[in-house]
Structures are given as structure tokens and as C-alpha cells.
Design brief:
251 residues; Helicase, Ruva Protein, domain 3; seven-stranded parallel beta sheet; 11 helices
Length: 251
């Protein structure tokens, strides 16, 4: 068997991966990213507020990956783009305060490959100049950095997409993602986790625990906690029921 060919389960996992580009400013980078994706077998491109799209430059740089551009989804926000995913992996070139511990590109690809066996996952890239905002980064369950020359560490957007798509393909070629065991629950989606976060925030405000005029970093820390926990849907329902019971008692 050709070692470059993925097994059917690995192909199914690859089809659950969406590549999200946020606020891309140059259409040529969108086309180049589409080409990078297709060479590694990924086809699901999602664009969040691209400055210019569609555009002839994107088509020219796609160089045969026109189908990826034609089928690309355009969203108004990262929240919309992440609907349905069980894991979003954010790519960044710099460390952030209060961010979770970064993964290396290879370990991140292995994590994503394993989760893709269970549900929809996303690779999230930021703007060419400023990258992802802290608010966008906070919406992702984990984040990763590509090891590079510390004296010149900034990769072109399409180059970063190429590296991560390659690592993901190699992860799927080398090992089969571990399937969800029979007694494990279904993982919560991005919007379900966002829902319980909003419920916590409202409950904290109602109880007086959170001062809306000076919220501090409570919600950011809760995001970090839930990202590490990899919540299941049943766990989300338990947490929301728990909060609702206190709200009812307060009446």
C-alpha cells in the first residue's frame, strides 16, 4: 500500500478538520493557504471577515485549488466559524498572558488528529500582521507554536498553514486516532461550552460574586479551566442544572 495514502478512518478524520483564517488582509494569502491545504488533503476552508474575498489574486495563488476557494465558508465572527467543533487549536507566534501552556506543532497535530476521530475540529490562524486577538485566542481550547528561528520567527500565513497541515497528515499516516471508548460521553461543542460559560457569568453577577464594573479575569480563567477539562455534553448539562437550581432558590 502506498505510504502516502490515508486509511478510510484517517480520511474520515481529515474531513472533520476545518482551517479557519481570521481577518486575512491579502487575498493572495487566502489562495496560497488553499493550495497548502489541498496538497495535504484538507479541503474545508473557513474565512472570518476577510478584507477582500473573492478576488482574482486568491484564485491565481490557489494554483489548482480553486475548488477549496469555491467551497469556502465566510463567517462574520470566530464564534460562528467554531460552531459544532469539539476542539479548536489556535496558532500563534508569541506567548500570551494567562494562556494555556503552548503545544509544539507536532504534539498539537497529534492532539487534533485524536480529537478528529470523535468530532469536528478546527485549526485557527490569525491576521497576517497581528495574529489572533486575545479574545479570539480565548475561544480556542488549546494553542500551539511552530518551532522556528528565535531571531526570525514570523512565518508567512500560508507557510504556517502548510506546516500544520503537513504535521496533521503525518499524524494520521503514522498513527490511528484513538476512537471514543464506549462508556465515554459525547464531547461538548464550542457553542455548548460557550453556553455554560455565559450561564456561569450570569449566575456570578446575580449572586454578587462578579462585579460587572470590575470583572477582572474570572471568565478568562474559567475558559482555561473548561479547555483543560474537555467537557462532555452530559457534564455541561450537569453544570447548567446545578447553576439553575441556585438561581431558582434565589428566586
Amino acid at each position: 500500500m502506498d505510504s502516502k495514502r490515508l486509511t478510510p478512518p484517517a480520511l474520515e478524520s481529515l474531513q472533520r478538520v476545518r482551517v479557519i483564517l481570521c481577518a486575512t488582509s491579502h487575498p493572495g494569502n487566502i489562495g496560497a493557504a488553499a493550495r497548502a491545504m489541498k496538497t495535504m488533503g484538507l479541503t474545508r476552508l473557513v474565512l472570518v471577515n476577510p478584507k477582500i474575498f473573492p478576488d482574482p489574486q486568491a484564485e491565481a495563488m490557489a494554483s489548482g485549488a480553486d475548488d477549496v476557494l469555491v467551497n469556502a465558508t465566510v463567517c462574520a465572527s470566530l464564534t460562528e466559524a467554531l460552531q459544532g467543533v469539539v476542539l479548536a487549536l489556535a496558532m500563534t507566534a508569541r506567548r500570551r498572558e494567562l494562556a494555556t501552556v503552548p503545544l509544539g506543532a507536532r504534539d498539537a497535530a497529534l492532539e487534533l488528529a485524536g480529537m478528529a476521530a470523535q468530532g469536528e475540529v478546527a485549526l485557527v490562524f490569525g491576521n497576517e500582521t497581528s495574529g489572533l486577538s486575545n479574545e479570539e485566542l480565548a475561544q480556542c481550547g488549546c494553542w500551539a507554536m511552530i518551532p522556528s528561528n528565535p531571531d526570525f520567527s514570523s512565518l508567512n500565513l500560508a507557510a504556517a498553514v502548510q506546516v500544520m497541515c503537513y504535521e496533521l497528515r503525518m499524524a494520521l499516516l503514522g498513527t490511528q486516532p484513538v476512537p471514543m471508548i464506549s462508556d465515554a460521553g459525547q464531547l461538548a461543542t464550542h457553542e455548548e461550552v460557550e453556553g455554560v460559560l455565559s450561564h456561569f457569568e450570569q449566575s456570578a453577577v446575580d449572586s454578587g460574586f462578579l462585579d460587572v464594573a470590575s470583572p477582572g479575569r474570572l471568565m478568562l480563567r474559567l475558559r482555561r479551566l473548561f479547555a483543560r477539562a474537555r467537557l462532555e455534553r452530559e457534564e455541561v448539562n450537569i453544570l447548567r442544572g446545578f447553576l439553575a437550581s441556585f438561581q431558582r432558590r434565589r428566586g
